[in-house]
């Protein structure tokens, strides 16, 4: 997939420092700090109301921080010479003028930002909207508006992408498509920051996850590291004497599920320890692998009661 380049310096450094936002007596974002790395996808995950959108809005000057700041290459977003070329954003998919066609919407934006006209067609192609380029945005589905929002974010060929729940309204094909797109944008050296309230949308896309709950960072680490720390590993073993091994494993406090093919799924004990136990009892293992490492449960445990859908207590 060939994409033209306008300016090539993807080494953007984006830094959030002690950012806080209060709305009345609600603290939406509570003194959070992080730095985003070029060349990788950072997932920003947390339940609805955790403060993800507010953080992203403050990062691009749509909301004013109560305190703290966000700097892109050492400057505030408002002070950037060519913001659309530095930071592409998808924050509010409803923002486009409904009466305009997708192509016109993008061309108008391109012109006001000194971006060549042809870039509109390039980004429409990238997001799969070429066929509806001349259709009015008012008739677009949520998924199509999300794709247009993504095209808008990509218009200035920016080094940084801030995307708030971009998979919202996309069908399963669209979710796989966006996953691939985000990965390839990061592989080009861009900094990709993408939010979601669903672990399933991010676990296979992000290199790193920042988990937010009630405006605070609950975890911030590489996906591999989080998986090792919190994820539930499931070992799959196929012994010559399943019933016997099952009994032994249970005595060692492992949870065992017997599968129809005679294999055992084991949680609470890793593959090497299972191998040692089996060997000690003269049980032969035809297979011994770690089959799954799910972050979903860890995420749910970490963020339980961290949403704001529970009404705030009034005093
Ligand atoms: N403009 C606003 N006025 C008052 N409260 C707001 C406003 N925007 C967001 N909030 C509150 O801030 C909290 C965080 O919201 P938000 O950043 O939208 O979370 P998320 O994007 O993680 O779902 C919520 O309690 C929300 O109700
Ligand atoms: Mg949000």
Walkthrough of the structure:
This protein is α/β, with parallel strands linked by helices and 315 residues long. The protein has 2 domains: 14-228, Rossmann fold; 231-299, Alpha-Beta Plaits (2-Layer Sandwich), CATH 3.30.70. It is built from 11 helices and 13 strands. It has helices spanning 52-59, 83-86, 102-112, 118-126, 142-154, 172-187, 199-202, 223-230, 242-251, 271-280, 296-303, and strands at residues 14-23, 26-36, 40-45, 67-72, 87-90, 160-163, 191-196, 208-213, 216-222, 232-239, 255-258, 264-267, 285-294. Strands 5-6-7-3-8-9 form a 6-stranded mixed β-sheet, with helices on both faces. It has a 4-stranded antiparallel β-sheet with strand order 11-12-10-13. A 3-stranded antiparallel β-sheet has the order 2-1-4, covered by helices on one side. Strand 11 (255-258) and strand 12 (264-267) form a beta hairpin. Helix 3 crosses helix 4 and helix 4 (118-126) crosses helix 5 (142-154). The radius of gyration is 24 Å and the shape is elongated. Bound molecules: adenosine-5'-diphosphate and magnesium ion. Residues 23, 26, 28, 46, 48-54, 308 line the site of adenosine-5'-diphosphate (ADP). Magnesium ion is lined by residues 52-53, 164-165. Residues 14-239 form the ABC transporter domain.
Here the CATH topology of the largest domain equals Rossmann fold
List SSEs in N-to-C order.
EEEHEHEHHHEHEHEEHEHEEHEH
Strand order of the largest sheet: 5-6-7-3-8-9
Tell me what portion of residues adopts beta-strand conformation. Answer: 25-35%
Shape: elongated
- Low-confidence stretches are 1-7, 309-315
Proportion of helical residues: 25-40%
CATH class of the largest domain: Alpha Beta
Bound molecules: adenosine-5'-diphosphate, magnesium ion
CATH architecture of the largest domain: 3-Layer(aba) Sandwich
As for the number of domains, it is 2
> What is the distance, rounded to the nearest whole angstrom, between the alpha carbons of the first and last residues?
57 Å
Q: How many H/I helices?
A: 11
Q: Give a quick account of the main beta sheet: strands, pairing sense, barrel closure.
A: 6 strands, mixed
Count the beta strands: 13
Structural class: alpha/beta
Question: Taking all residues together, what is the mean pLDDT?
Answer: 88
Q: What does the radius of gyration come to?
A: 24 Å
